[in-house]
Structures are given as structure tokens and as C-alpha cells.
Design brief:
heterodimer, A: 158 residues, alpha/beta, Rossmann fold, 4-stranded parallel sheet, 5 helices, 47% helix, B: alpha/beta, 2 domains, 9 strands
């Protein structure tokens, strides 16, 4: 199943995600994805998107995520002043380096949210769900699935 | 500190074509500070290689890309710590400077050691994300006569006798982003009250201490065992 990993700032996006769960308007914090159930969503609460390092994003992709999204505060609204600005720059950097290995830049994205934007949160997840279905799973998942399929075929042949 | 930057990923991937077990080795000293080859960068590069190989369908039980970081790649003691990991790899991607790569190549005879970085210069972090060249390692320091500003490294022409005709409003003719080193030297000497020192007649610089004698050595007899 295609997967989205979302790093959500606890001061904004995570609250929006929680509200979305409570109001059942969309994706749940627990990982449910009611509007798009064929896509798994994992939401990771972080103290600030500026805390998410480049390697965290890459590890998520390596771990099988088709899309990694950082959901942070709007500019000027960061609890730690410039964490979201740093996060945006890091996302830009990762988008560049994954293109160097032939991956689509849209596998890594950043969106700004306020705590009361549960509808926007659900809309983002819905849009990303469509995108990840179109793009297909991440490279590591693809090869794992392929290996599993080949192993199954080999076992069947035996 | 030595400042370096990572080679393009495509170039690195070409270098490691044909190898199955890659060890990416970071260095915890200069290249960590310039964010080119430290522990974080080694992890990032190893992850990118794994994903690139996965994309090509190359991941499997016999294929492995791992990373490790030593305190300093240019000292034997620290390299000994990773001997077993190096022995288990087909090729090593060094994220050290040129000295680190060569130290590893000497330490691990018979092992392919490849450079993941381009070593650029001796310099310092100007501000977050910006490093500038300050020293050309010319072997005959003149900073005592130039107010602590190096004309060899910081003048585009490495002039030793004042600014050229291309200096305009304190900027170098090569680029408006480059300060004229001799303007900086003049201003600094003026602020130090030492302008008269710039008028001193000096013999030509001794370039024999630079590169014309081949690879240089520094020997401390009192330290030799």
C-alpha cells in the first residue's frame, strides 16, 4: 500500500490533524485515511519542523514512504522563530538531491498550517494521496515488493 | 580548517559502479564543520546510494551500503578503528578531505578508496552556510606585514604590492562580490596606525617554500622518535 509519512509540528499541524480526527473530516492521527483508504498515512508529532533533519526525510523514504511531507507553521508564526524557514530550506535541498538519483521531487513536500486548519489538513492529505497513487510507492518499497513477488513465484514453481 | 564540498551524486554513483559492498566513511573534523563529510553527511550519502541502487533493482542480500565516521581520517590511530569494516567492503567512499582519502589509501593497501568530496581550500565559516578561503598554504606567511589579511589567498591575482588597476570602490574586478584584498589591507593597516609599514621595501617573496620543491614536509626534530 502506498504510504505518506507526515512530520507534523505539535504547535500547528498536529493540532489540525487531531481536530480532523475529532471532527471526522479526514485523515486521523492514528493513521486512518478515510477519504483515501488505499493510502497509508503515518503522522509523526515533532516539536518543530525545524527539528526534522535531512536524514530523517531520507530514512522515511528508505523506510518505504512514497511521499514525505513536513507540515509546519506559517512564516512568522514559528514557536521557535525560524524553525519552519529552516525546514522549508531543507525540504528544498532534499527535493534537489533526490532528483539526482532519479526520484520525483514531489516525493518530499512542505505545507504551512495553523492549529485550526483541520479541513486544510485533510485536503492536503487527500491531494498527497492522489499524488502518491499516481507516482507509485517509493524505490525501496518497489524493490521489496518485487523481491517478495519473485520469491513467491519461485516458491510456487518449486 | 579545510573546506570541501560533496561531489555531484551522479559522479559518485559512476565511481562505485561495479562494486557491491560500499562503506561510506565520514570524518569528524574539518569536513564536519563545513557540513560536507561528517556523520550526518555520510548518513545522507549512504541513504541516497541505497535508494539509487534500489531504483535500479540492485538491492539484495549480497549488496550493502553502510556508513561510519571516524574522528579524523588523516591519522592512523583513528583509521585502525574501522579496519574490520573496511575489510568487509569492496570499496570505500571517503568523505574526508584529500588528505583523508590518501591516508586511507595508504592504511588499507589493496582496498579501493574513492573520494566523495572535492577539497576546496583552507578557510573559515563566514556565517551559517558560507565558507570563505583565507589561506593558500604558501609556506611563507606575510600576514605580519598585511594587517592579518592574506593577499595570496584573498587577492584574485595574489598580488604582493598593492591593488591592481581593476580595484574599484573596494571591490575586485573579478566580481562585485569579492572585496579587494588590498583595500582591506589598507583599511586595516590604517586603523592600526601602521600605514607607513606598507611603504617598506621588501625582497621578492620566497616562492621556493610553496610548491616548486614537490610535496612539502614539516619536520620537528624534537618530536621525531
Amino acid at each position: 500500500m502506498p504510504k505518506i509519512v507526515a512530520f507534523a509540528c505539535e504547535h500547528s499541524a498536529y493540532e489540525a490533524a487531531t481536530a480532523a480526527l475529532e471532527r471526522k473530516t479526514g485523515t486521523a492521527v492514528s493513521g486512518e485515511n478515510p477519504r483515501f483508504p488505499i493510502v497509508e498515512v503515518e503522522i509523526l508529532k515533532v516539536p518543530c519542523t525545524g527539528r526534522v533533519e535531512v536524514i530523517d526525510i531520507l530514512k522515511a523514504l528508505e523506510g518505504g514512504a512514497g511521499i514525505v511531507v513536513l507540515l509546519g507553521c506559517f512564516e512568522e508564526a514559528c514557536h521557535y522563530l525560524t524553525g519552519n524557514v529552516r525546514a522549508k530550506k531543507r525540504v528544498g535541498y532534499v527535493r534537489r538531491i533526490i532528483q539526482d538519483i532519479g526520484l520525483e521531487e514531489n516525493r518530499v513536500q512542505f505545507f504551512s498550517l495553523a492549529p485550526d486548519m483541520d479541513a486544510r489538513f485533510s485536503g492536503i492529505i487527500e491531494e498527497l494521496s492522489k499524488q502518491v497513487v499516481n507516482m507509485g510507492p517509493g524505490p525501496v518499497t518497489r524493490i521489496r515488493d518485487q523481491t517478495t513477488k519473485e520469491q513467491a513465484q519461485a516458491a510456487q514453481a518449486r | 580548517m579545510i573546506v570541501a564540498e560533496q561531489k555531484p551524486v551522479a559522479e559518485i554513483l559512476r565511481m562505485i559502479e561495479g562494486y557491491r559492498k560500499i562503506l561510506v566513511v565520514g570524518c569528524g573534523t574539518c569536513v564536519t564543520v563545513c557540513m560536507a563529510g561528517g556523520e550526518k553527511e555520510a548518513g545522507i550519502l549512504a541513504s541516497l546510494i541505497r535508494m539509487a541502487w534500489a531504483r535500479e533493482g540492485r538491492l539484495g542480500p549480497l549488496i550493502d551500503v553502510s556508513e561510519t565516521t571516524v574522528e579524523r581520517q588523516c591519522e592512523w590511530e583513528f583509521l585502525q578503528e574501522i579496519s574490520e569494516k573496511v575489510a568487509a567492503s569492496d570499496a570505500v567512499l571517503s568523505m574526508g578531505c584529500g588528505a583523508g582519502v590518501q591516508a586511507m589509501a595508504r592504511m588499507f593497501e589493496g582496498k579501493v578508496i574513492l573520494p566523495a568530496l572535492n577539497t576546496k581550500f583552507i578557510g573559515m565559516p563566514e556565517r551559517q552556510g558560507l565558507w570563505t578561503e583565507l589561506c593558500a598554504g604558501c609556506g611563507d606567511c606575510v600576514l605580519d606585514r598585511t594587517g592579518g589579511i592574506c593577499p595570496i589567498a584573498r587577492c584574485s591575482k595574489s598580488l604582493l604590492n598593492g591593488p591592481c588597476g581593476g580595484s574599484q570602490n573596494g571591490k575586485c574586478e573579478v566580481s562585485k562580490d569579492i572585496d579587494c584584498a588590498w583595500q582591506l589591507i589598507f583599511d586595516r593597516m590604517k586603523s592600526l596606525g601602521r600605514l607607513e609599514a606598507l611603504g617598506a621595501m621588501l625582497p621578492p617573496k620566497d616562492w621556493s617554500k610553496n610548491r616548486d620543491g614537490g610535496p612539502r614536509k614539516v619536520v620537528r626534530e624534537d618530536m621525531l622518535l
